[in-house]
Structures are given as C-alpha cells and as structure tokens.
Amino acid sequence: MLISIILIFVGLGFRDPWPADEPRFAQIAKEMVETGQWFFPARAAEFYPDKPPVFMWSIAIFYALFGSLNIAFLLPSALCSLLTIYLVFDIGRKLWNPETGFIAGLLLVFSFQFMLQAKSAQIDAMVCAWITLGCYGFLRFLLFDAKWRWFYLACFFMGIGVITKGVGFLPILILIPYMFMRFICNYHSILKPDNESIVKWLLGLLVMLLAIGLWFVPMLVLVELSHNPLLEQYRDNILFKQTVTRYADSWHHIKPFWYYFVSVIPAFWLPLSIFIPWLIPHWIRAIKKQDARVILPLTWIVLVLVFFSISPGKRGVYILPALPMLALISAPYVRQILQRRAVNWILWALVTGISLGLLAFALAGLSNASFTQKLVTEYAISPWYFFISIGLAGLLGTLITVKQQQWRSWPLFISVLWILYSTWGYGLLEVVKTPKKIFQQMQHIVPQNAEVGLVDFAEQFILFSPYPITHFGYHTDNAEQVKAAYQWIGTSKNRFILLSFELVEGLCFDKNKAIHLGFAHRTDWVLLNTASRVNGCPKPQLHKPQGNIIEYQYIPKP
User: Fold this and answer.
1) Which residues on adjacent β-strands are paired with residue 452?
2) H or E stretch covering 517
3) pTM for the whole structure
4) Of 32, 122, 158, 390, which is most buried by a Cβ count within 10 Å?
5) Which of 67, 75, 74, 12 is nearest to 34 (CA)?
6) Per-residue pLDDT tens over the stretch 158-186
C-alpha cells in the first residue's frame, strides 16, 4: 500500500484537468457546488445526460471540502484505485496466502493501464473499484466463507456501479460459471451457502435495485414534478440512448471485434500481457484440478472481454475492470514464471528498447530532425531532456539487473516513469493540455467586463474562461450554432465569439476580420466581434424539444 500511495499520489494538485474527459467532469462538479443543483449534472447550465452523477458527486464533495479543483478532481480515482489494490490483495491472501495477495497487488500497481487510470479523472477507475468490490464479495461468498453478507455486499456495489457507469452489473456474470460448476459439474471446491433458499438469492437482486434507486427514484420523481421538457429529455437520454443504444448501436469509437485483443491488451496490460503464454498451462492444470479459485475469475474475464467486444463502440479503458481479476489469477504462478529465462529477458529487452527509443527520439529532437519538430511547432513544447532522463533511468535499471533477476527492470522503470511524468511531465504538458494561452491572448483584446460566446465548444474553454460564457448547446449542429452566435453578438458591442477558424461562415462573418489567437488542442482559434458580421446571415432553424436554440449562460466563479 505504501508503494501504491507513493506512485498514485505523487503529483496530486500539480496539474489542471486535461481533455478529453477531465475538464467536463471537473466543470460539472464545480457547477454542482456553485449552484447547489446536484441531481442533474450540467455543463455551463446545459444538462449532461451521458453519465449518471456519482463520479461527479465525488469530485464535487472534495471540491467543497478542500476548495481546490486541482486536488479534488483526481482524488476519487486515486482513492478508488487504492481500494481496488487492497481488495485484490485481500482476496488473494484469503483464497491462497499472504504472499499471493501481495504479488497480486504489486502486479496491479505495476500494470500500465491501471496506474494510468489511477492518475486520471475518468469514471473508469471508480467503476473498476465497484466492479472489483462486487467480484470480491462474490468470490468471498462462493469460495471462502459462504456468508450471505458478502453476497449482498456484492449486489449493493453492483447497483452503485450501475449509477456510476451503466456496466456496473458485470460482477453478476461470475454466477454463470458458478452455476455450471455447482449444478452440472458438481465441483467440490464450490461452497454451499448456509440456510440457502430462492428467496435469499432473489433478495440480492432487490439489494442491487435499492442501490440503483438511491439516485434513480428521486431523479424520476423530480423530472415528473418539474414538467420541464429539458429534464424529460435528460431522463430519456440517460435511460435509453446512453445504455442500450450506446451498447448495441454505438455512434462513435467504432472498432472491430478483435480490437481489444490486438490493440489494447498487448500494450496496456503490460507486464501481465507478457506472462499470458506462460500462464495458460498453469490455468489449464487448475481447470483440470477443478480449482474454482482460478476457474471463476478466468471465466469471468473471458465473459467481460466478449461482452465489450460484441459492442461496435470500443475504448481501451472499457476493459479495465478485468485487469484486477487477471492480476489475482496470475499471482499464484508469478514466482515460477519469473524463474524462466525467456520471461526475464523479454521484460529486460522491452525496457531497454523503450529507453533507447526515448533517447534516440530526444537526440533527434535536439538535432532539429524534421520528424520531431511537430512537438515544437504545433504544441510549443521541447520535451527532449525529459525523454533523456527517462531513457537514462531505464538504461540504468537494465544495467543494474542485467546479471540476475532481469524482470526487476520493469518495476524500476515504470516507477521512475510515473514519478517523472507526474512532476516534470505535468509541467511540460500543462501548456499543451489547457487553453490558458488562448485566454491570455484574449485578455490583450477583450475587456474584463465582456461576454464571450462559444461555438462548437470543449469543456476546458468553459472551465478556464475568466469571462461570462454563453453557448448554444453542445449537440446543436455547428452551422446552426454559428447562426445563433450571429444573432447573439449583434445585440451588444461588448460581446465576442470564440471558435475554430474553419467554422467561420462566410454567410455570417467576414473571415478576413477574424482575430487569430493561436493554436490549442490542434485547432486554430479565432475571435469575432460585431465588426466581423456580414449582412444576410440566415436565422437558425428550430431545435426541438424546446422550440428554438437555447442560449446557455454560465458566469465563472473563482
């Protein structure tokens, strides 16, 4: 836990929220505290129906407690990741022994994807914790002591997982191999619960529904009492479009069925992905011995991967909840696997290759090689000495471990990587990942008491704006947003529009009068004032369900 705390918490408070997701969640949490409106998440006054509010609540609570968004937005992921590590350690020592639990925890800490999410403000680290807690409860109930309280704990946190992110129900899949092993194969390693009855099993479903109802029922009641078409749209969106439709007929992040197996697991599940070929024989022997400690988590991992692979919409972080269980069923065999020369040298060669690659790229950058100059010209950073430091640290680790136990080069390298990334790296990326330089340019042009309208906005431009913000709906068609912005800016000379240069519409604005502010987030940002308007801009089309395009207004508070 000490190793986990150091690697996860180093750099906490050193950076601002970074796109794509962090500014959105941070802004929503900030508005919750500012407005006192917690049940319906909103970004710049527009309801946000894409995710339930639990993760945003957690950021908002820490923001209210500490008054610092830079600390608050990363704390939930950090604490949930610590919980996940402890759960894997604890169930490992209960099902095997303390050494196995310790190894399982370390495997998780040194896994690339797990630590990346632990240091990011995305929902996935939190939902991973709730799913792991569900698996922990089921495994403890089914394999360790058969006490019903662990079954109900698992069901309760499945419900909490659902109102965090819809896939929180995934632990229930572990009951599929359990039922098969118990009632068809009659495995002796499966425990029979005390005083078992159908009612007790069904009560678990009720517990899960009660957990979901903590948010779901008040939300439905408030929507019904509001008679507000925007809240009704929020309800319908989060209940249907963001659940069943998003899974079965996803509209973005479209990837082939095999995406996770070829593009995510090999790189993001390091070092566990390297161990898999040597783990498979151990797992096969465990299956032959009817060892449910391996069979239940292993089957569950396969079901989870199949579940996410079936959906056309895929992101690498979706399969994060499977990683803790993989660490658990790998831990009993890691000592044997690390005695193999091939495994040691593969890990050593991997670290050596990454280190040499970073050094070569950094030296090319210092020599102004053309393929390195995009970082300098487009992103305005020169990370060459940062890369050199990581590369040298990695090579030092390989030199220390070259004679024996070469596998140690990986934990040494990954620890240095996360520490340097969380300090020096944060400082380098802060300029690239935030729109601060755009607003600094604006402050030379736009008076402090002005209003700024955003077209095709990203949440970071709301979060970092020193000006009152107006926008025209996140999902409103860009052409209609431009027309609405034309109407809005025409009512006052103290109004300005911030948008991408490629969106400046010739029918509404004169491109030659756009004021260029610079590049940020791969976009050329420009400022428009009333003088840039041209006659003849068509009026925006009606936008259902509210009847016209709404102007959402947000006044930032320090």
Assistant:
1) 469, 496
2) strand 515-520
3) 0.94
4) 158
5) 67
6) 999 999 998 999 999 999 999 998 888 87
